[in-house]
Design goal:
heterodimer; A: about 350 residues; alpha/beta; D-Maltodextrin-Binding Protein, domain 2; 2 domains; about 45% helix; globular; B: about 300 residues; mainly alpha; 13 helices
């Protein structure tokens, strides 16, 4: 009896202490590393300070963690950072709260940088990169050049496993103008056309890469002469001495975003917090810490981002104009089908 | 007459004793049986059950239908068995002579060479795989030194394909073959070979008709172990295959990410398991598996 009471007391104490902690702090989960450090310095900490909210940061493993929390009914995250595609899928699955855009002002965001469940936080590009020692001044300028192994002889690497950002370049290389890409892709025939185009390049594709670290390493080691990949990774590789350059021409503009898990303990505060960090005065600090661009266009007008820095950011007005924004609508409609077809081509 | 009655009584008593003994033994082994049930039978049963759960959460054969409809699954299974067979074959070609060489060396030297086998065995698989990447890639150590010495002018393609995958996998699998073969060779009575020679057999003949057959149980044990371990390989083909050597385990991972349900991945696991069991069954038709597990005695 005494024992039971004691255990009950312990349980109550534990429960109430977590409940108290929950009342106190807003929990934000991101991917850790230099990425979260940048978010923390530019967005999270200043916003929490200005709003007078206590903040608790965690690292997490992506939407599978959110799925676990939501399905078990023990949601501890208030805000999670996510890739736009996985956020869209998680939203469709019912794991996220719809965002209230009367609270979060996205009127000056780049188009397609917000969705029902996720508000864009930073922008990156899916670009083509090449070995500067190999090609010198003979630089590729388009996806057609990436496919042109006569003018640009050498080995290639390409997105593997996932179809994210893999089909759009193929269609552009096949002569489809950027603004028509998703129109053409919106059918099984269009998807087939893109995959056939990649099949054509396949004999020259040495590696189908599956992570950003991998495509950066491939360029650093000189294992391939040209690859697709994420802009920020090549900046880091170049800083490490790799002979690599990339272009924003015909690149695919994609973004990371913030979402609120379904049943988050502090939904209202989370919404206000997202509204705060979406403002230009926070976003303009982000490029100080990482070469990802802001999603809010106004961040380029505060004077914090210099011209030189802007020239290297995926979302600067000049660079953004040369790119195609990734269409989440297309991915939620076709991703599973297209991925299966794409992986099928890869096994041939 | 009385004698048979007593004998029958005795037999009854003996039977009862035997029954009690069996029950006792069963009681003693029940913790182990329970362990097998909890860590093997239940999870595999669950895996089997999940493979019939469709995307909507109900009973469905869609996970198996997909495997038949799409050509890629057939290719992935073919690749898996191709890689596993080739790795096993190469491991035998390299491992058997090496084990023989080891078994003929005097003790201290044999130990030294044994360390050469065991040291990589104890090194992380990931580290060894990446080490091969560093060695084999276009501007890797092998290509650079070979070109510096003028062995070849253009970098030779050795990795991010089947070649690289096989090199990595054979290297990782070799100890699994060498150790049982070496064990079998060491347990062979040297006098048998001497007797063969005494009866007029040439060294080659003595090796092939006396020595080699005695090592076969060890060789089969090693080869079977290598083959089955290969079937489930993930890291090495993923890193050294360049995204073009796709094995079942890799497809299991991508199915989990793609379909966000366990069914699509479980069905692959079930088919792989079924094929493996089938191979073991076929192998058991030709070989005595328990004898192999008992390392040849």
């Amino acid at each position: 009896m005494i024992k039971t009471t004691a255990w009950t007391l312990v349980a109550v104490a534990l429960f109430s202490s977590t409940a108290m902690a929950q009342q106190k702090a807003l929990t934000v989960a991101s991917w850790g590393g230099s990425y979260q450090a940048a978010q923390s310095k530019a967005l999270f900490e200043p916003a929490a300070k200005n709003l007078g909210i206590a903040l608790k940061q965690e690292t997490y493993g992506g939407m599978s963690d959110v799925r676990l929390q939501v399905n078990s009914g023990k949601v501890t995250f208030d805000i999670v950072a996510s890739g736009s595609g996985s956020a869209a899928r998680a939203g469709d699955e019912g794991l996220l709260e719809p965002l209230d855009y009367s609270v979060i002002d996205v009127s000056h965001f780049y188009p397609n940088m917000t969705s029902k469940y996720c508000v864009g936080g930073d922008v990156f590009s899916n670009v083509f990169a090449w070995n500067t020692a190999k090609y010198g001044t003979n630089e590729p300028r388009s996806w057609a050049d990436f496919w042109d192994v006569k003018t640009f002889p050498g080995t290639r690497a390409y997105r593997g496993g996932s179809v994210a950002g893999a089909l759009e370049p193929a269609l552009m290389a096949d002569g489809v103008p950027p603004d028509k890409v998703y129109e053409v892709l919106d059918s099984k025939e269009g998807i087939q056309r893109a995959i056939d185009k990649i099949r054509q390049l396949k004999p020259h594709i040495r590696v189908f890469w599956t992570s950003g670290a991998q495509h950066a390493q491939l360029m650093k080691d000189g294992e391939v002469d040209m690859t697709t990949g994420w802009s920020g990774r090549f900046d880091n590789a170049r800083a490490d001495g790799a002979k690599v350059a990339y272009s924003f021409n015909q690149a695919l503009l994609d973004y990371d975003c913030f979402a609120i898990p379904k049943g988050a303990p502090h939904k209202a505060e989370a919404m206000r917090f997202l509204a705060e960090i979406s403002k230009p005065e926070y976003q303009d600090d982000l490029p100080k810490y990482i070469t990802y661009g802001p999603t809010n266009k106004l961040a380029y007008e505060t004077g914090v981002i210099t011209k030189e820095v802007a020239a290297g950011l995926p979302s600067s007005p000049d660079n953004a104009a040369r790119q195609l924004s990734l269409s989440l609508a297309w991915y939620s409609k076709w991703e599973t089908y297209a991925t299966e077809k794409y992986q099928e081509m890869q096994t041939e | 007459m009385a004698g048979t009655a007593i004998a029958e009584l005795n037999a009854d008593g003996l039977r009862r004793d035997a029954r009690i003994e069996r029950l006792k033994l069963f009681g003693l082994s029940s913790p182990a049986l329970l362990l097998v049930l909890v860590i093997l039978v239940l999870p595999v049963g669950w895996l089997f059950y999940l493979s019939f759960v469709g995307a909507d959460g109900g009973f469905s054969l869609e996970n198996y239908a997909r495997m038949i409809e799409q050509k890629s699954y057939e290719r992935i299974f073919t690749t898996t068995f191709e890689v596993s067979l080739l790795t096993t074959g190469l491991a035998i070609l390299i491992g058997y002579p090496f084990a023989y060489f080891l078994s003929q060396l005097p003790g201290r030297l044999a130990n030294l060479f044994m360390i050469a086998v065991l040291l990589p065995f104890w090194t992380s698989l990931l580290v060894r795989t990446y080490a091969w990447l560093v060695l084999l890639q276009r501007e890797g150590l092998i290509n650079k030194s070979a070109m510096a010495f003028g062995l070849w002018d253009e970098p030779v393609r050795m990795v991010h394909d089947m070649t690289g995958t096989l090199v990595g996998m054979v290297h990782i699998m070799l100890p699994f073959l060498i150790l049982p073969v070496y064990g079998a060779m060491k347990s062979i009575d040297v006098d048998l070979v001497k007797a063969a020679a005494n009866l007029g057999a040439s060294p080659t003949r003595a090796f092939w008709t006396v020595f080699c057959p005695l090592t076969l149980p060890g060789l089969f044990a090693g080869a079977l172990m290598v083959f089955i371990l290969c079937l489930g390989f993930f890291v090495t083909p993923a890193v050294l295959g360049g995204g073009k050597v796709i094995m079942v385990s890799m497809k299991i991972v991508s199915n989990i990410q793609l379909f966000v349900n366990w069914g699509a991945a479980s069905a692959l696991g079930v088919v792989l398991l079924a094929l493996t069991v089938a191979i073991l069954w076929i192998a058991s038709r030709f070989l005595n598996l328990t004898q192999i597990a008992g390392s040849g005695h």
